[in-house]
Fold this protein.
Amino acid sequence: MKLLRKGKVKEVYDLGEELLFVFTDNISVFDKIIPSTIPHKGEILCRTAAYWFRKISDEDIRNHFLRCEGKRMYVRKFRIVERGSKEDENFLVPLEFITRYYLAGSLYDRVRKGKLHYRELGFKTMPEYGERLPEPVFEITTKFEEYDRKVDINEAMEIGGISREEIEEIREIILRVDKIIEREVSRRGLIHVDGKKEIALGDSRQIHVVDTFGTMDEDRWWDLEEYNRGKIVELSKEFVRQYYRDIGYYDSLVAARERGMEEPPIPPLPDEMVEKVRDLYITMFERITGEKFIY
């Protein structure tokens, strides 16, 4: 068993014909691993992702999932490359694909700071945080650079080794996946706000959904009932990001990055926050999947 890649929250091992994902209890925000672990988080992420892979398999959407055992997921193997090729097959596209359905997160920050005009999103007047977007926003970012960076279609084609037509097909498949997610979680009182997907090209460059998606780490969730009452209740890792904003760490980190200075180390979460985050992950596993988390 050879370690291929050690990410912020999971390790990837080469088993020959398959890959093994081992999900840790680590938690990361702002491209930083927090020096605190969240009990049961690894198993929750693994089982949540497995739930969605089974759902999209039922609807004939190709993916790499094979089986899940606790915090271990076995998947079909695709080659990892830093740059794709338009003549190649069976490789992980070195990009991340983000779909947004509500004005939140970094998209809201860009609008608020004037880096993106709200009319470009289809709004006629300045929207408020949390408003549903007139049309889904589809964005592409780098995957293997030090920090994720948004790229346009032309650069995505160059880095990913994919055509414009393949990007459009990827977009349509991701929208299909997100419709499945929305259909399922709305029954359990959740709003799927936005999320990240990864893609591989298999034999004959057939598109496969890979890595993990629909979890607390890749996606943003709100409470549907509270939203309908006019209140946004964050039910995702945004809860942790907000903690670091509130204590001033995020501003210090951004300032250091903008000035090219040494980044401040991220402080650990206090014990009470670790308990809150653990409880949130367990509760969200049950609300996302409709299954009971027994440990």
